[in-house]
Target: methylmalonyl-CoA epimerase
Amino acid sequence: MLGRVNHVAIAVPNLASAAESYRVTLGASVTEPQVLPEHGVTVVFVTLPNTKVELLEPLGDTSPIAAFLARNPSGGMHHICYEVEDIVAARDTLKASGARVLGDGEPKIGAHGKPVLFLHPKDFQGTLIELEQV
Model:
């Protein structure tokens, strides 16, 4: 079911500062900020030869990232995203095996313009999982 790792997401309290650290200190290529109101975040992607790192900043106080940063003020790893060929088939297989899909269970369009779903971290050793259809 799972394909390659699409990205690892890191929640940050200041997106501009974090992007600058990756760009200047680490010499990485960083995309322009992308505002995603339906997900409550602003994101940039650090492009690497084998994957990406997504830096997330909350878009308002009701963002799930704001709650994460309240518990982890310096930021930290938020989730890992795996690619799947058919997100609806993956969702149905996971639900049939007892995994919990967050939200209403319907895929939403993510930062790459592709359908995504999130899986409950308690079902995956404390790690929030994002699935992205490729």
Remarks:
- The mean pLDDT is 97.
- The chain has three helices and nine strands.
